[in-house]
Design a protein that fits this description.
Arc Repressor Mutant, subunit A; 12 strands
Length: 268
């Protein structure tokens, strides 16, 4: 059995609406999603991921991306530690920076790509974001230039004809609306008008996770927002429906690779 390697750092960001993280780990991340756009660079090793377009593999030097709400996971190739640094962009920030551009239905087309010029822009932006007092003009230019390059060269329109079945959509709406409230497969099935097995099978096929796994990751994302707003881990656990703080902490680390307390301390 391989020894566990897991070193992650959430950096203080000097750019509002941008988060910066570095990681070196052989940790396998379960299927989950983020509220933000994520764009980073693999620095060491290799990773396999499940994504909406199917399995993908990224190597050192590749750019890795994720769209808000996009389900994905991350498995180290041959169990060996891989490394990356990544920037997470609040969708509101992206919309503001690219005001005037038609962003309706915009998403990053591929979860792994190779673009040396974009990689250089991202590296410069990462430096600006993690410098305590960056040159404001230079940081603004770097942010806008990077986002514009991503949109124009690697953006795509989200298909408008891909829709969830009504039963899955109803169950997902319930879990999205009040993830802090406990539910059951029977309740979700009754709400959706199908049997429990029909809902379970359809939900897993369309969403990429079971209703329970989806609920946990929605709760973890809610915890993240509460921590960013200044709530303590204990308060966040209580307000998001977790059985206790330790349960919440385990789920948070599995998804984000960092403890809730550490994440909160870097947001203060």
């Amino acid at each position: 059995m391989r020894d566990r390697t897991h070193r992650v750092a959430q950096h203080r960001s000097a750019i509002a609406g941008v988060e910066a993280m570095t990681l070196y780990s052989n940790h396998a991340f379960p299927r989950h999603s983020h509220d933000q756009f994520g764009i980073g660079i693999m620095t060491l090793g290799a990773q396999r991921s499940w994504s909406g377009i199917g399995p993908v593999e990224s190597q050192a030097g590749d750019i890795i991306t994720v769209n808000p709400g996009e389900m994905h996971d991350g498995l180290p190739v041959r169990g060996r530690a891989r490394g990356w640094w990544i920037l997470y962009f609040d969708p509101i920030l992206v919309a503001r920076e690219l005001a005037g551009e038609d962003l309706r239905g915009f998403e990053i087309a591929k979860p792994a790509l190779r673009d040396p010029s974009l990689a250089a822009s991202l590296q410069q932006l990462f430096i600006h974001a993690t410098t305590p007092s960056p040159d404001r003009l230079a940081a603004e230019e770097s942010l806008l230039w990077t986002l514009m390059r991503v949109m124009r060269e690697h953006g795509a329109r989200r298909p408008t004809d891909v829709k969830s079945s009504p039963c899955v959509a109803k169950a997902r709406q319930r879990l999205d609306a009040v993830p802090e409230l406990a539910t059951s497969l029977a309740e979700l099935a009754a709400l959706s008008g199908v049997s429990r097995f029909q809902l379970l099978r359809g939900f897993a096929r369309e969403v990429g996770a079971t209703p329970h796994a989806y609920l946990v990751q929605r709760r973890v994302r809610l915890v993240r927002r509460l921590l960013a707003d200044g709530h303590s881990p204990a308060e966040a656990a209580l307000r998001t429906g977790f059985a206790d703080q330790s349960h919440m902490t385990r789920a948070f680390v599995r998804q984000f690779g960092i403890t809730p307390g550490r994440y909160r301390s870097l947001r203060g």
